[in-house]
Write a structure and sequence with these properties.
Elements lengths: L1 H15 L13 E2 L15 E4 L8 E2 L4 E5 L5 E5 L27
Antiparallel strand pairs: 1-3, 2-4, 4-5
Length: 106
């Protein structure tokens, strides 16, 4: 009986712990299509920022998009908004050689 009660308690905590997370950054559309060769982001360690739309169909997120070719060869895209400032004009700086991006305002 004690095992069953413990199991139910753990199950309840696991299911109820998934609360409603509210990000400080609003949900905005993102859609950008670029040829990787034309933006010089082909090799690990390369980064590229897109802060304004080039085409009418482009949607650059809340504060712009940071495209990273990581050291594992995979591509990752991040919104350039600082999560603490939560203003589209407060962007993170481009990453250093170890791909650490920081906010100059925080």
């Amino acid at each position: 009986m004690k095992t069953k009660t413990t199991f139910l308690l753990i199950l309840f905590v696991m299911l109820s712990a998934c609360g409603n997370y509210r990000s400080s950054i609003p949900d905005v559309p993102v859609y950008v299509q670029r040829h990787l060769a034309s933006i010089n982001c082909l090799f690990p360690g390369n980064v590229w920022s897109i802060t304004s739309p080039r085409l009418a169909s482009d949607a650059c997120g809340y504060a712009g998009i940071l495209l990273v070719c990581a050291f594992d060869g995979q591509y990752y895209a991040f919104d350039m908004a600082c999560p603490h400032e939560a203003q589209p004009s407060k962007r993170i700086d481009l990453p250093d050689e170890s791909l650490n991006a920081t906010c100059p305002h925080c």
